[in-house]
Design a protein that fits this description.
By secondary structure, this protein is α/β, with parallel strands linked by helices. It contains eleven helices and 14 strands. The chain has one domain: Rossmann fold (3-Layer(aba) Sandwich). The strands form four sheets. It has a seven-stranded parallel beta sheet, with helices on both faces. Strands 12-9-14 form a three-stranded mixed beta sheet. The protein has a two-stranded parallel sheet with strand order 7-10. The two termini are 30 Å apart. The structure holds uridine-diphosphate-N-acetylglucosamine.
Amino acid sequence: MNAPSTVLVTGGAGFIGSHACVELLDHGFEVIAVDNYSNSTPQVYARVERIAGRFVGAVYELDIRDRPTLSAVFDRHSVDAVVHFAAHKATGESTRMPVEYYDTNVGGTTALLRTMHEHGVHQLVFSSSCTVYGDAGHGPLDETTPPRPTSPYAASKWICEQILADVCHRHPEYTVLCLRYFNPAGAHPSGLLGEDPRGTPENLMPYVAQVAVGRREQLRVFGTDYPTPDGTAIRDYLHVMDTVEAHRVALDHLDDGPGMRVYNLGTGKGSSVLDVVAAFSDACGRPLPSEVAPRRPGDVAELVADASAVTRVWGWRPTRDLTDMCRDAWRFQRLHPRGYEGSARRPHTKH
Ligand code: UD1
């Protein structure tokens, strides 16, 4: 295996992107990170570098839809492969602002592909989501499950996957690895990196964490009338460190052969909203308050991965569970009650 050495990470300052930067630096990759900071802050890079003990090769503030600026990055660096995280990712929000979601997620991906093409870069690891399966029903879902997106967010990811499949079909020099993750959660075990969304968190784990630290009064449980054992929706939560390890393993497998391959990333274990509240309550040492609220538009009852394919092919499997995720998310939230912006600023020099 001949892994790429210089990797461009889009959305490098985001939740998964920042953890991925650590993982790639830890494994000897040169990392070029781009982000428009729409839901993140450049402060994370100093933390990434502190954990990894190495510098990020270069950091750029840009929107990947801005092709001339993105192209200049490819001009300056000899990029071998791209890991593409930059996107909006909240189901509920996407039902309120569909055009924004398609523009950023689909338009961002096509702009990136055109730029990669112009620069002869043909290796991509794409951040997809189990959300593409939609309301597929009960039981673990494998990659053969027909996609049935139920929200603009889900549709945007599914459209990107179809575009990537077309690109690989038309241009046999491309290798695209699509990773459909279920619900990434948790934080780096150092407590220096974690999930810090702007404004009110849309996703469950960061919301619960903010309740735990006293920033929000109580969790609203969206729907208690789902056909599940406790009536709340079931998801397959995957530790962010397991998630980014899978990306690093994917980079090692880009040279296995051209074409597009799609893999689920999950644990195969479902947890309900109430399971998460209970696990987080254990982690922070007090029962967390919650109230019943109506179902959230676009949500589905259950999404659990059959992620056996990626284990079979690459040998990757998650090693952390919900208890680990809550412990690590709580450590980050406890150390950063108001998130990164509320913490002391460390100067960060753009390279
Ligand atoms: C969605 C995507 C998933 C993607 C993730 C990105 C779907 C079905 N899944 O996850 O592919 O990886 O975004 O982060 O689109 N909940 C509450 N109260 C809250 C917040 C959430 O009860 O305040 C519930 C939701 O209704 C849902 C569960 O918690 O049942 C998880 O929600 P969330 O964390 O937003 O993730 P998904 O919507 O499942």
